[in-house]
Amino acid sequence: MKINNLSLENSLLNNFISEIRDESIQNDALRFRRNIERVGKIMALELSKVLKYRQTDVKTPLGFASVNVIEEKLVVASILRAGLPLHYGFLSMFDHAENAFVSAYRKYCDATNFDIHVEYISAPNLNGKTLIICDPMLATGGSMEMSYKALLSHGMPDNLHVVSIIASTQALNYLAGKLPENTIIWTAAVDEHLNEHAYIVPGIGDAGDLCFGEKLDLA
Hints:
Elements: E1 2-5, H1 13-21, H2 23-26, H3 29-48, E2 53-60, E3 63-70, E4 74-80, H4 84-93, E5 98-108, E6 114-122, E7 130-134, E8 137-138, H5 142-151, E9 159-168, H6 169-175, E10 184-191, E11 193-194, E12 200-201, H7 207-212
Parallel strand pairs: 1-10, 4-5, 4-7, 7-9, 8-9, 9-10
Antiparallel strand pairs: 2-3, 5-6, 11-12
Helix pairs in contact: 1-3, 3-4
């Protein structure tokens, strides 16, 4: 498994990560979602550099031009609900990609212990395609593992890219033994610690709540 930590190089991406982390800016849900989308666009551009391309001729008003276009068949998947703004950012760049969605969430047994539940999957045939799974936060890696396994019920992709904005060291180590060997993980930052509730520290908090408002827990 390969890990591309985009924060190791200075770029405009760091400005958006700064705002996403800033609790005073987080109060503006619209700006928070917009920043997630912007991060998605930048990460999509970086990811596009490792895809396979083919040459094609395009007819212009004055002749023909040879250009290289993406050859791989892409499927952009997101883990509901926090992954949606990141998904939109990727889809705005890979606008011919197919789409998939997985509902994976934590069901707490008590204040600190939880299980991962998957209840909904919508996906095209994944056989032979390149699967890009978007989730803003990789905390334990459990949701990503379960979501990937659930998606396999729709076929076996040739390539897997995992995209997160902030990943924990623990999640990266965990997924190294759970995902295919040729998996590439793309992250905009790596944080070292998880707290007693398995939230990334310093992280950003609950990405889903920051995007869409707090949810009512009826458990």
